[in-house]
Structures are given as structure tokens and as C-alpha cells.
Amino acid sequence: MAHKPTVLIVDDEPDLVELVKLTLERMNLATAAAGDLATARRLLGEKRFELCLADMRLPDGDGLDLVAWIQQHQPQVPVAVITAHGNVETAVRALKAGAFDFVSKPLDLGVLRRLVAVAIRLGADDGAESARVGPQLLGGSPAMDALRALIARVARSQAPVHISGESGTGKDLVARLIHSSGARREGPFIPVNCGAIPTELMESELFGYKRGSFTGAVSDKQGLVQSAEGGTLFLDEVADLPLHMQVKLLRVIQEKTVRPVGEQREQPIDVRVLSATHKNLASLVQAGKFREDLYYRINVIDIRVPALREHASDIPELAAALLRRLSRRLGGEAPALGEDALAALQDYGFPGNVRELENILERALTLCAGEQIGVADLQLRAAPSGAAAEGDAASIVKAAAAGADTSGSDLGDQLEHIERDAILKALEQTRYNKTAAARLLGITFRALRYKVKKLRIE
Length: 458
Prior knowledge:
Layout: E1 6-10, H1 14-25, E2 30-34, H2 37-46, E3 51-55, E4 57-58, E5 61-62, H3 63-73, E6 79-83, H4 88-97, E7 101-104, H5 109-127, H6 142-155, E8 161-164, H7 171-181, E9 189-193, H8 199-207, E10 208-209, E11 221-222, H9 224-227, E12 232-236, H10 243-255, E13 257-258, E14 267-268, E15 272-277, H11 281-286, H12 292-298, E16 301-304, H13 315-330, E17 336-337, H14 339-347, H15 353-367, E18 372-373, H16 375-378, H17 386-389, H18 393-402, H19 410-429, H20 434-441, H21 445-454
Parallel strand pairs: 1-2, 1-3, 3-6, 6-7, 8-15, 8-16, 9-12, 12-15, 17-18
Antiparallel strand pairs: 4-5, 10-11, 13-14
Helix pairs in contact: 2-3, 6-7, 10-12, 13-15, 18-19, 19-20, 20-21
């Protein structure tokens, strides 16, 4: 006979235990109950459980004690805590201690059912050794091994995770890995760039709106938060959220509800929130630019993605993988990376991290004349030339073609606009003769062809 998923309920209130039992039995789950920590520990040692629901207040101790005990003795069992209404600090402490999730009193049975369903699905996933195709984190250095291990641990939780690290380190990839490795991977992954949405549209974009709530609202629209129902909401560059939106986001995370613009009632939501930024959130809190309560709420678990220079030993593997991908995109074979080029890459500081490495290799692949990329093809430079820094458009194009990295930042976007304008003017002056335009700009014909393709001028 197949094992029936079983939930351990740890609470000394008979009425609440009976309510939870009835709810779970209607989900075709078996239950067992314990009125104190001692009984809970004994049952956990005797039977197999797919989930433990524990009240924070027990006759012989604290629910956090049980969370810590389970983490040490039964780490495969997800534990969710039952907290008093509005006691956010207790919930955060439980999540930091390793709790899977939390639910507040008085119990919302809809929220409870969703929590239990996710936890049971997580247990089923652990028992199935199925191969999963998804994003990968390359590199065999100790730093990357530690990062993979941390991702595997937090993927089992529903706690909010904040991903920090420099621009270009791969914070988006880490967020996708957390999602694809957890019980919510069948649900949607909704990335939101908080810095790309105009302030005046942010509330309606995130939370949606009702028809007639403002001029132009001709029909109901679902927000990005609701689009992540059953899955993961990834708030990239969360430091760019204006203060008034930080207040609203805090309520979404704490109450697990959202209210569209023009709607009178709040709607329950079931999403896991991940966030990321390259900025120092703690410094922004001290400066009054980021709410302290929201900071502690999204930063329950912190994952720092190491800069590329901190695991330079992974550059050969990363470079090989990037060259294969870029070559497939161009429809050709990947050229070899010469020993001199590889040594130069490992000595380079990479202020733009993995994103900069990809840009350098893409440029080298375009400019390389032979079957092997040499150090000259990389055109590594620490900064744009003085002429380019002064803002001369042709010099900027020349510096960028020679190797100045202009990606991954607002400055990079500005430089690309300047490059595009300079190239268009040169093409117009030479009646679209690319050889003459390249000569006018002071760059090679191949470099111009590369820039025209990259900027999609044709």
C-alpha cells in the first residue's frame, strides 16, 4: 500500500488542531497531533512526515526550538510555523531559523491549503530523481560550489530571498535557479525590473487595475504580482522602488494579499518573493532611501553572488561555454581560445563580471580572423580612451570597437545611443558606403560591421 502523505500538527489548542485536521483530511492527507515539543520530537523520530505545522507558543517551549531540532535531526521535513496575527518579527525569526513558511492566526484556510500543497509537492520532488533541464551555474571553484549548495537549501524554503552582488555577476540566473529547483517550478517565474517602470505607472503595472479606475482603463488588467500566482516574483533592482511603493510591497509580503487600483477589496495571492540589487541596501536604509521594515522583510535570507575576479579559476570553463553559445548563434564553429588570451582574461579585473566576459568574447569572435582567438583579439582595456571620455562621438565608437566595455549600466545605454547616432551620420555622409564610413569614424571595416549588427542599424 502506498504511503499516504502525513502532516504533524503541533499545537495545544484542541479546537485549532481539529480545524486543521478536517482541512487536511479533505485534501486526502493523513494527520497526527502533538500538544507539546516532547511529543512532537518523539513522533518525528518514530514516523515519516511530509510536513510539520507548529504553533509558536507551546507548553514546554517555543516553536523556534522545534524548528531548530528539525533542522538538525530531520532536515528533509519542511516545518511551517503558526504565528499570532501581525507578529511579523516572530515569522521572520522562524524563517531565518529554517522554517519552510508561516501562517498567521486566525487561520485563513485558503492560505493554509496552498502552503500545505506546496510543501507536499516539495516532498514528492525530493523522492523523484528525475532529470531537470533548466538554467545552470557553471564553475567548479569553492565559491561556486558554496553558492550552489546555498541555492539548493533555500530552494526548499518559501522565505523571501535577497540576492546581492555586483552588476553582471548573474543575480537573475541565481533567482531562476532557486525557482526551478523548488516546489514552485511548475508555476510562473515573473521577473520585474523595478528601475525600468515609470513611477507613475508602477502601482498599476505591479498590482493591476479595475476598469474605469482611471482615464484609459477600459478593461480590467492583471498586475505582475498576480501573474506570479503559484510561482515566483523576482524583483530585480528592488532598490529603485520609490518609497510609496515600498509601503505597498511590504503589505503584499506580510499579508499575502494585493489590491488592484480601483478595487475596494484585497485579493489573496500565493507567490514567493525574490529580490536583487547591485546597490548596498543597508546603506540606503541608513540614508532614509529604503524602508528598514521592508529591508528586513525581503532580506530574510541573503545570497551574495561572488564577483568574477573572486573565482577567476572558473574563467576557462565559462569562456568555453560562452564561445560555444555565441558560435551557435552565429551559425559557425567555436574558435579555440589561445593560451595568451586565456592568461590575459584570468589576469583581467572584470569590473563588469560575467556579462563583460560575454561581451569581450562576442567582440573577439567577430574580430578574430583565424581559427584561434589571441590576446590582440580581446582588446582588453580598463577604461575608454581620453578622447572618448570627453564625449566625441566618433572617438566613442572607436574606443568601443577597440574594446571599451559599454554594457550593463545607464552610461552604457547612453554610449550606445551616441554610437548609433555617429554611425548613422557617417553612413549618411558616405551615402551608405561602409568602407568609407569606417574610414571616417577611424575604425576598421570589420569593427563597423560588428557595431552595425550589434546596434541593429540595418
